[in-house]
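Below is a filled-in request sheet from our internal design queue. Each sheet records the structural input a requester submitted and the sequence that came back. We keep these sheets so that new team members can see what a complete request looks like end to end.

REQUESTER: design group, bay 2
PRIORITY: normal
MODE: inverse folding
CHAIN LENGTH: 96
BACKBONE (tokenized):
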């Protein structure tokens, strides 16, 4: 959407120049410029929400990766060390 936003600005500039130079009629200019303006507004309104959703997905991925690292760390226990026992107790107390 960010890329399309830049493309729309470029298209709108060319459209304006084409109209100013008489390459396209005023009516065609009006129709196309209204469509470009409407699309820009849609992007402007949708982009913040989509950016937030993308960040949430990135955060979820990071949390999932962290979970997998911990799962591997705690599923392959060869010896119960004091550090590991304290970690388990701490987690149990956090949940309770």
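RETURNED SEQUENCE:
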């Amino acid at each position: 959407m960010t890329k399309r936003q830049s493309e729309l600005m470029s298209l709108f500039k060319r459209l304006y120049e084409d109209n100013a130079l008489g390459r396209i009629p005023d009516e065609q200019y009006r129709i196309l410029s209204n469509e470009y303006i409407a699309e820009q507004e849609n992007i402007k309104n949708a982009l913040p929400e989509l950016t937030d959703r993308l960040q949430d997905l990135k955060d979820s991925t990071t949390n999932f990766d962290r979970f997998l690292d911990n799962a591997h760390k705690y599923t392959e226990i060869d010896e119960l060390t004091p550090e590991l026992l304290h970690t388990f107790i701490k987690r149990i107390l956090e949940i309770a």
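SHEET NOTES:
- The longest helix spans residues 26-75.
- Helices lie at 2-20, 26-75, 82-95.
FILED BY: M.R.
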